Predict the structure.
Amino acid sequence: MRTGLRLLLCGAIFIPAIALAQDSDKKENKAEVHGNFSMDGQYYRPDEDISAVVPDEQMALQGFGNIIYTQGKFEAGVRFETYVPAFVGYPAGAPWSGTGIGMRYAAYNADNISITVGNFYEQFGSGMVLRTWEDRGLGVDYALDGLRVVARPKRGVTIKGLYGKQRRSFNGGIVYSNGLVRGLDLEINLNDVLDSVFTIPGQLTIGGSFVSKFESDRDPIYSFPENVDAASVRFGYILGGFTANAEYARIGVNPTRFNSGILDIPANLDPSVGLFQYGQGVNANVGYSRRGLGIGLTANSLSNMAFQSERDELTGFDSWINFLPPTSVLQTALLAQFYPYATQPNGEVALRADFFYTFKKKSALGGKYGTKLDISFTQVNAPDYPLVDDFDINRRGIQPALFRPSDQVYYSDFTAKITKKISPKFKGSLMYMNIVYDNDVIQGAYDYDDVPSSGTVYGNLYMAEGNWTIKRGHNLRFELQVLTTDQHLQDWAAVIVEYTASPHWFVSAINQYNYGNADGRFYNFPVLATGYIKDSHRIMLSYGRQRAGVFCVGGVCRVVPASNGLTVGITTSF
């Protein structure tokens, strides 16, 4: 009944609007309808050896479909979602269940103004004070439901204004957070604005954002602020191969359990001791590149930067208003993803350096086809938090100075990779990665039931990869990876073989081995997959064991429990 009512309401909104758009100007562009669909199913089998999770309902099915209508300056869209039920461990936060409308909107887009009503996604600057986004694979959807206006009053000036409630979960339809989000953003391209006055070498942009969250205070003990404001300033500069950008953000007093744990305070503690502190953060990037050479530096410092539209959020995964750009490199190697870094909004100081160089063809190190060298280094430390006298509450609500690291290392990695074309049909690469990972703090690595967390993990990863073009349209790719560590889940090896017969077929075999455990146990995770692709349509079938682990996108991670079974996925667009 609820789904049918929502469909009826969507029709009541969109159909008259479509008719009005058609009648207003018969000469407008031809009406178009496009969209995409995705459906995934998984059948779970018991597997005690890997502590596989088997739900009561052994078959899970989830999917979505977007339908978008456009005509001239008018656009309207709707997304249908179903989770009957969702996959085990999906999403990581509040549950998604049932079937219904997960998004609906209408928009008018003219040269100098755009207006959207309904659900929408938006980002101010790098996202440090506002970024609403979605990723179906990760199980993230932070859409706002309300009104957004984007104005371009003159060349080089963009003004954005918005307000709305934020999606928190899904239960036969959208379930919204308690807080109301409001925001303004201004961005100025100084080259365009000052073009008639003088010429600025390169491209220079500046911007500023203001975001406010209102949420009623219902706490019976403490008096929490109902209005929490956040603001940021930023700049970006490009000149030839040189780029630089930076953003500073500050969030008002915002006590939540993810801001240095300042809700986890003794019941008899007087709030006047100053535990409720503001948050601040800096993200800065400098880079230079030209043909065959690239250098990049990133510096990041955060403290009390959790900004959610639901104050009492328990998961640390839902209702995020802002996005904290990750410093660490998103590794694609299978075993490197076992220990991914998750950004710590309560506080971190991070530095990263990247370097790549291509040795020219026919040089001593380049050989016949050239050689590419990639090196990166990342280190993330805990901030140097001062202690609070008389209370054992270190790292709880105390405002650290920016770029003041302590000796405690949350995470570090050093990666070196050499890629070389050996012949016209074969290209290979070798990679080494050193990892330091504080499992207790990051809580990213998934533990088997009988393997406790082991503090800091020290690992070394070795990888060899080859890509062989057998003949036109036929390609064979293989990887061999070894991860060694004396902590946590001990040593791992992985073998990947993938054969592609373009443009339609592919088949792959993956096996991961966990060995060297103190109890002598050996874990084996084989997966066989095949798929067919035609135009924008894709179907994939896989069977095997899925090891417990972490799936990350852009510094946001979710835990995937161990499972065994059959998975089918279908995607298409039109």
About this structure: Residues 2-24 form the longest helix (23 residues). The chain has three helices and 30 strands. The radius of gyration is 26 Å.
